[in-house]
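Section 5.1 Outputs to date
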Amino acid sequence: MTVTAADILTTESIPKYLEQVWGLPDFTFTNDSTVATPTDDNNALQGMKVDTIQGGNVNYAFCIELPALQKKMFLKQAPEFVAIMGDGPDGFPLTSERMQREMDVYTEWKTLLGETLGPKYLPEIYYFDRKSMVVIMEFFDGYELLDHILVDPDGATNLNTDLVGSYLGDFMGKVHAASHSSNQNGNLSQ
């Protein structure tokens, strides 16, 4: 699917978009071990707040706060161009199909890591819209971007950079071990 400048979601259009997709069968939002849908909670989207996330992203990115559920979600959309370098044909071209590849990688990693390690290392994906190249996933509130940590570890707040390196190495090692040709079952459910 081609996602052009005219198809891009905004802070103004996201509430209506979310209302349309919230009750779809493949939209799964968990809230304290229960699935929240419009039939379960008609007020789930009430008071929604949408903020643009700025900086360093080729996609359009937003934080959606749901006060009624005391939760936040992360929404990103992949246009046919690099978001930070201009709109449409005049911007730097980049295929929106990259979002499909990203979802394929999350699915593969989740399978490789299994039920125990998958949730430890990966965000929960609530919804993927292939037509609009939109993904809605768990928002990691209170975390620092790895890019910030790697570029300026002295500027990182509330963070043990050695611990970050250890977790990153652990994740990479487990995914590599599970996908290595010598591992025939390809799952690390331990």
